Amino acid sequence: MAWLQLFAAGILEIIFAYAIKESDGFSKLLPSLMTLLTVIGSFWLLSSAMRTIPMGTAYTVWTGIGGVGAFIVGITVLSEPITMLRLLAATLIISGLILMKVGGS
């Protein structure tokens, strides 16, 4: 259950990263509210997952899901550039997440 909570927290982190971009410096109400709600939800789920999963593993996986997810949203939704170096960086993050999961088991 803790890993599902951690995954959900990571998904909410992706949503809040996108919402904060769309809030235009918190000048737009709906994206600003979405940012605040998803931040609260993400932190709550992360803290719940940390009851079972070691802090270092949970925090690394949470930020990794959010970082790679925001990278993917940036490319697919916001038309951000795809470069080999950025793809390599995302691949290394994913590799690290896998190692954290395996190492934490």
TrEMBL record:
Pfam families assigned: Multi_Drug_Res
Compartment list: Cell membrane
Tree of life domain: Bacteria
InterPro entries: EmrE-like (IPR037185), Small_drug/metabolite_transptr (IPR000390), Small_multidrug_res (IPR045324)
Topology of this chain in the membrane: Multi-pass membrane protein
SUPFAM superfamilies cross-referenced by the UniProt entry: Multidrug resistance efflux transporter EmrE (SSF103481)
Keyword field: Cell membrane, Membrane, Transmembrane, Transmembrane helix, Transport
Chief location category: membrane
Residue intervals passing through the bilayer: 29-47, 59-78, 84-102
Family: Belongs to the drug/metabolite transporter (DMT) superfamily. Small multidrug resistance (SMR) (TC 2.A.7.1) family. Gdx/SugE subfamily.
Name the record gives this protein: Guanidinium exporter
Originating species: Methylophilus glucosoxydans
